[in-house]
Amino acid sequence: MLNDLWYKNAIIYCLSVGTFMDANGDGIGDFAGLMRRLDYLQGLGITAIWLMPIQPSPGRDNGYDVSDYYNVDPKYGTLGDFAEFTHACAERGLRVIIDLVVNHTSDQHPWFKEARSDPDSKYRDWYVWADKKPPDATHGVAFPGVQKSTWSFDKRARRWYFHRFYDFQPDLNTSNPHVQAELLKIMGFWIQLGVSGFRMDAVPFVIATKGPKVREPVEQYEMLRSFREFLQWREGDAIILAEANVLPDTDLEYFGEEGERLPMMFNFQLNQNTFYTLATGDTKPLKHALLATKPRPPSAQWGVFLRNHDELDLGRLTPEQRAAVFAAFGPEPGMQLYQRGIRRRLAPMLAGDRRHLELAYSLMLSLPGTPVFRYGDEIGMGDDLRRPERACARTPMQWSTEPQGGFTKHTRPPVSVISGGPYGFERVNVATQRRDPNSLLNWMERMIRMRKEVPEISWGDFEVLRTSRSDVLALCYHWRNNSVLFLHNFAAKACTVKFRSGCNEPVGCPLINLLSDDHSQPGDDGRHAVVLEPYGYRWYRVGGLDYLLTRSEI
Ligand code: GLC
Ligand code: CA
């Protein structure tokens, strides 16, 4: 199906196989375990799974250091298990995308081993070398405070090699046509095994010029078109979801003016400003980010997220804004990372306040784009700040009150489940929340179901409505003669917000609440006045009740 834009109205769930469910009791999650949990995921309502790196790796950067692109890490299972997994997903109508990490390899990859030891090897030019230490070797490190430089000396090659990330992740020379051809082959391989696309790691670096003489890297955007074309020739509806933390003025370079490059990108701009607004109640920068990232080709889509497996990167905020987010959500140095971010999970950042959490997820589900959840978000999992860097928020999924949260039968898995305290598995787990109709898990399931029934968010045009309050965001979407309207109160205080509904009627339209019976009628002046609770939110359909009925037939 060439034109099936399934990703436009999808619900993506990101997980790492190693921390999700362990079936064989060796303490490491595996495909067999994950397969036992597919019905859980389907029940939650998600429509696509994003698997973090699954390929063989020495595991020094959570698998983002690949040593073989054509296999599954044996600790997770075999390629056979993987094919079973994609089949089991397809049976349930779930799509699978996997991480594609091709900016760099592991230094244990046979290509790098050969490249460093044999100057005549064809792999020598697959990496980026310098005879002398480049003068700007300390510039542009990806992990400030932990990573010292972007060039390291290799004793074997007696040359310097370039690495944007850690020194065990040598950058591939992505300008080399042989490397580019290999990259396509890797995509083709996994497509053949049933994936619907890739979350592409570090895209701006993949396409940047690299080398000792490169002072200001230049993005070679046309490379993105070649990836896209290849994918679509092989599998019409396959996608790339790009990790590209870039400024809005280059968004269209990434998407392509006609949508001929990347179908999807994470909206980092929106992400950072969302956190600023959550921290301060000031919606202005969030509105600004919404409008700045509005232009995109019709086939393209944003990935909208709150937290991911990395630190919450606040590098694009002003120093004052960043300080405000740090003060609210990560005041202690141990909560911060790389001089720019916060490494905690969302629930502890919001002090476990259910109202604030609901506000945040209601917002994520109603921002323009496809929502991307992180495993454990749905039950409000916490973090373990004793673990280093980003590892604090990568602990095993908490399934039940059994030992190790039901994640494994092993008594001492390499990564322990969070235990004790407000976020320990004893209190926060799937089994307990499943039984409680008011749990976060059941709330999330209802919200996800509702989100899927409001395709206007994914397909429509949005307007930021003017309201009487700066701490309330009012968003209205229009699509195929339907309109939906969302209110979010970022303040910890109740308020009355006044606004026009965004319909064309001068007298205003009624607003039908999608989540409760509390509808809203316009006043004589055509304006609505809605009383919102502290951190209150509303999902409305614009128009009479009959609208509601006709909509559901679509
Ligand atoms: C991306 C990943 C991150 C990883 C880095 C290097 O930013 O999200 O986890 O460390 O790339 O591959
Ligand atoms: Ca296992």
Describe the structure.
This protein has 554 residues and is of the alpha/beta class. It is built from 17 helices and 21 strands. Strand 15 (461-464) and strand 16 form a beta hairpin. Helix 5 packs parallel to helix 7 and helix 9 packs antiparallel against helix 10 (284-292). Bound molecules: alpha-D-glucopyranose (GLC) and calcium ion. Calcium ion (CA) binds at residues 22, 24, 26, 28, 30. Calcium ion binds next to loops.
Layout of strands and helices, then pairs:
Elements lengths: L11 E4 L15 H6 L1 H7 L3 E4 L27 H13 L3 E6 L9 H8 L11 E2 L20 E4 L4 E4 L14 H16 L4 E4 L2 H4 L15 H13 L4 E4 L8 H5 L8 E3 L1 H13 L3 H9 L8 E5 L6 E2 L5 H11 L6 E2 L3 E2 L3 H4 L4 H13 L3 E5 L55 H6 L4 H13 L3 H4 L1 E4 L7 E8 L2 E8 L5 E5 L11 E3 L14 E5 L4 E6 L2 H8 L2
Parallel strand pairs: 1-2, 1-14, 2-3, 3-7, 7-8, 8-9, 9-10, 10-14
Antiparallel strand pairs: 4-6, 5-6, 11-13, 12-13, 15-16, 16-17, 17-21, 18-20, 19-21
The protein binds alpha-D-glucopyranose (GLC) and calcium ion.
Calcium ion (CA) binds next to loops.
Protein name: Alpha amylase catalytic region
InterPro entries: GH, GH13_cat_dom, Glyco_hydro_b, O16G_dom_2, SupH-like_C
Pfam families: Alpha-amylase, SupH-like_C
| Tally of helical runs | 17
**Number of DSSP strand runs:** 21
The CATH superfamily of the domain at 460-550 appears as Golgi alpha-mannosidase II
Fraction in helix: 25-40%
CATH class of the domain at 460-550: Mainly Beta
Q: Give the rounded overall mean pLDDT.
A: 96
Per CATH, the architecture of the domain at 460-550 is Sandwich
CATH topology of the domain at 460-550: Immunoglobulin-like
How much of the sequence lies in strands comes to 15-25%
Biggest sheet strand order reads 1-2-3-7-8-9-10-14
Which structural class best describes the helix and strand composition? alpha/beta
Estimated radius of gyration: 24 Å
Dominant shape = globular
**Biggest beta sheet attributes:** 8 strands, parallel, barrel
Low-confidence stretches: 547-554
Distance between the termini: 21 Å
Bound small molecules, by name, code or SMILES, are: alpha-D-glucopyranose, calcium ion
Protein name: Alpha amylase catalytic region
Pfam family, one: Alpha-amylase
InterPro entries: GH (IPR017853), GH13_cat_dom (IPR006047), Glyco_hydro_b (IPR013780), O16G_dom_2 (IPR045857), SupH-like_C (IPR054049)
Domain Glycosyl hydrolase family 13 catalytic: 14-412
